[in-house]
């Protein structure tokens, strides 16, 4: 795994996040949320700074990061794509939609395009079963998505992409 060098400005922002939570171990989840907002993900180096600032073990920080699905140790794309694979979406063709994103972006689940524009993941349910199959790009929800709509979704966020 590559070592991430934290730029000084972001390191100062991270220590300020910890201080704003009074460097209390009980604030770990809040600190992790803020850190992930700052960095986009939680690499080992960020976790190590948080552990030191909150005076807790790196193993405890890592345990929380890996337990909660919201946290990620891998960088996400500028436009994270999540395909719902809940029962209603799956039955209505979400797997084919997912396969089309994989084919067009040339990435697998959990990966990010080489240019950092898109990342691809699955999720269980977004609570929009009446719109199945559902795709989220960032906070934006797309309903009744079929494989033939996938290129339009990609182009909406990156018109220069050739798919």
Structure characterization notes:
Strand 3 and strand 4 form a beta hairpin. The chain is elongated. With 163 residues, the protein is an alpha+beta fold. It has two domains: 8-67; 79-157, Glutaredoxin, CATH 3.40.30. Helix 1 (8-20) packs antiparallel against helix 2, helix 1 crosses helix 3 and helix 2 runs antiparallel to helix 3. Helices cover 44% and strands 11% of the residues.
Topology, element by element:
Elements (H helix, E strand, L loop, with lengths): L7 H13 L7 H12 L4 H11 L3 H10 L11 E6 L2 H5 L2 H12 L12 E6 L11 E3 L2 E3 L7 H8 L6
Parallel strand pairs: 1-2
Antiparallel strand pairs: 1-3, 3-4
Helix pairs in contact: 1-2, 1-3, 2-3, 3-4
Summarize the structure.
The protein is of the alpha+beta class and 163 residues long. The chain has helices at 8-20, 28-39, 44-54, 58-67, 87-91, 94-105, 150-157; strands spanning 79-84, 118-123, 135-137, 140-142.
Keywords:
metal ion binding, single chain, Glutaredoxin, 163 residues, NuoE_dom, 11% strand, NuoE-like, oxidoreductase activity
From the coordinates shown, what is the CATH architecture of the largest domain?
3-Layer(aba) Sandwich
CATH topology annotation of the largest domain: Glutaredoxin
Which geometry do the CA atoms define? elongated
Structural class: alpha+beta
- Can you count the beta strands? 4
Uncertain ranges: none
Tell me the radius of gyration: 18 Å
Note the main sheet: 4 strands, mixed
Give the count of helical stretches.
7
CATH superfamily of the largest domain: Glutaredoxin
The largest sheet has its strands arranged as 2-1-3-4
Main CATH class of the largest domain = Alpha Beta
Count of discrete structural domains: 2
Range of strand content = 5-15%
